[in-house]
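Notes to self, (Atlantic silverside) hypothetical protein:
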Amino acid sequence: MDQTETVTEDFPDAPAKDQKLFGEVKGRDTCSIPCDITVKLLRDEKHSICGQLQQSLLAFGRSTRKLIRDVMEEQQRALDVLSAQVTELMTKVQTLSSEVQRSNTEMYSVKPVQSHGRDCSDIKDNLLSVVPKIPSGIYIVHPDNTDSSFEVFCEMDYMGGGWTVMQRRTDGLTDFKRPWADYIDGFGNLAGEHWLGLKKVFQIVNQKDARFQLHIALVSKDDITSYASYDDFRLDNETQFFRIHLGRYAGSAGDAFRGYEQEENQDTAPFSTSDVDNDGCNPFCSTGNITLESCSMQHNHTGWWFNQCGLANLNGSPDDGEQRQGQRTRILWDTWRHNRVLHEIKSVTMKIRRIATNN
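result:
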């Protein structure tokens, strides 16, 4: 008897090895789904899910497009309403603007601007019996025998008040390098640095039965004050280039307008600018060793009553800018000196006031 038989006999209940393996394979094949069927089921399921997803996406796309279309239509309706409202509002604004413009035209044609007086001296005299203290500030004046009213700055708390300011230089923020037309009409800020304008000054000082004093107040860099005053001041008209006429001098700064020599005298000189040259330099002027064609150009293109340049120009700059060779950019009043040293001027005010007449 061989070994196989022996093992079988020793373990009668144990199945043979081959039988066990066959049984296991047979059982597994019986409970499992074949692979090709599983693949087919999965493929069908995937196709079904994809189809459902595509249908959902299509439905979502249709609903989204409809929503966007509805929103855009609603916005368009709102824009149409807003556009109509804007158009209506613009029409009302234009109508109102036209009415306001017409009203202003009618108002100014019927009601001219009410002036406070003929000049600051006249304003002071008119208000003195009404108010105990008249404030300095901007007032409207209407000189006699003129068709125009204009604003001026009145100094009411300086040496008795009633001063009409015709020029002020304090900080150098206003550019005085100007052509003839600007000096004729005036420029700057009345409450600060400004030039009132030759036409306006002419209208004030040439009123009938009126005489005016010119007062020049100077302040140096070290806060020393001085002044020059002329008891009679007037201007010729524009055809005479606003030639200046000065009365007797009084003061502590010296008479720089007339200077020390006759050739330095600026009294009766016409006004001059860089573009309208009336300075008398024909063809040249000489100051020291310098030959000049234009006093205005030498004085930083400012306007003044130059006569072969002279010793005064209050329209120079109060700042400390460097002066080029042969240039005079600063405020000049050459007769105001201390121990023969010229004062550096940081501010100046030119003002005029009525003086008593014999009439």
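- Confidence is low (pLDDT under 50) at residues 1-31, 107-111.
- Residues 120-355 form a domain with the Gamma Fibrinogen; Chain A, domain 1 fold (CATH 3.90.215.10).
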